[in-house]
Here is the input.
Amino acid sequence: MSCDVLLVDILSSMRVATGLIYPSNVVAQVTGYLEQEDISFEVMFAIVQDDGQIDIVQNNEVFSERFDQEILSLAPQIVAFFPETELIPQSLLIHKKIKAIFPSIVSCAGTNTAVARPDEYIQLGFDYICGQDVFISFTRIAKDVLEGNRPEEKLIALPRQQNHLNDMPFISKKFFSSVKPRWCFPNGDILTFGLINDSFGCTGACPHCPFSDFWGTDWISMDAERIFAEMKHQIEFMGVTTFLFAGINFFPNDPGKTGASALPHKKALKRMKKLEALIDESGYDVKYMSAVRPDTINYLADNNPEFLDRFLQRYRVSFLGLESLSEAVMHGLNRKTSTDMTRRAVEILDKRNIMIIASFIVGSLAETHETLEETLQFIREELPPTSIPILNIMTPYPGTKFYAEMEEKGLLLRNDLHLFNGKNLLFKHPVFQPGELENRVQKFYTQFFMQNFDAE
Here is the structure.
């Protein structure tokens, strides 16, 4: 079962333990490009456990002590990693392990930190770094290496030539042969879902965001017709009816429009209306999972409530970037969403029984013990009990403006690539001491999940 290219998709041990198999949308899309170029590939779904053991997932089951055997049987010429930011440390560990087994293997990385600090990745044994366009860049590297024409340059970054994603190939069926994305809810319900790479980039351009730094601040999207075509494709071979829209920002704000009354992107609104019409015409009972902005929900509730109702009828899960429930912290992050808008968005989603994955940033420069408690109190007392909160510690990711600011001011405490995962306070904070915020977050998680889920 040898292959030319091995794509290593790293799954979060915490997510898998709670019944969520959430594969990488980037790896998924890369498979489409490799298949289009007739390049032999396999995908390994790997989990790094707390003790360093590497498990693999096949047919949605976790297997231990198969990693080495699987690598030896695949014997790839090229291995590539495109991990989420939080999983970069795990990718570095797996890469080291594979290099020990196959020292001459050609390895590639496509992450924000790799592009920002390529020399360090090269020192760790990576041969090539994939920048934008990451899909075309990696495809070029793979073709050149397999044809015996290894590029001399180490950082390959080919700019995207089009202003849409309609030309992207469908995600390969092979990607879903070992793993079907799945969510096991606290009540025992299991939801299998498909993946759609509907857009890249975010008009928000937050200075601390590694995603907008890597993918850009222009919103590049698929048209409704292309989205629907891939939906139909995955419905026919997987039988799914729920789809995760994997774009950073499903409904971005209109570029150039700022303030509390920021308007949704006109193209995004037009796209969703067209997609709704296509789904209605098909008769499919399609459901959505995606990130939605609180200010977008507020705007539609005030200006187009009929469309908002129709739109939310399709929702199973909504990812909300709430950031903080402190006005002072939101001001410090230059976010225009008020706490009233946040509460209203949560109320609107809760009334429609839509599960909320609420993402917060803790430990920004404006954070204090009091502002942190405001956010934690909101989670405990006002978020619906079925919600899942995610607390990300403010991190100066390499390549972002926030990293440059902390470096210039001499406030970086640690610069180890393994620590840039949103779980460590890496800069000198005006209030919190090293380790203090990490302990507070861990204590909250333990109390929250024991209270809300262990009783189920």
In short: The radius of gyration is 22 Å. The chain has 17 helices and 18 strands. The first strand starts at residue 5 and ends at 11. The chain has a mean pLDDT of 91.
